[in-house]
Specification:
This protein is mainly α. It has a domain at 2-33. The chain has helices at residues 2-15, 25-41. Helix 1 packs across helix 2. It is elongated and about 45 Å long.
């Protein structure tokens, strides 16, 4: 699930107006961090 979401976000970022210094790996790492925070929010909803 996370890979599909990340792939979709990366496709959107190719079309977005990203500053030159953030293009490539930096914006990907920032996006991965935000995605990790979003998934950590789900950890309290489901107990296994």
């Amino acid at each position: 699930l996370a890979l599909v979401i990340m792939a979709g976000i990366r496709e959107e970022l190719e079309l977005a107006d990203v500053p030159e210094s953030f293009k490539g790996v930096p914006i990907t790492l920032i996006t991965a961090g935000l995605l990790a925070l979003a998934f950590m929010g789900f950890s309290g909803l489901i107990s296994i």
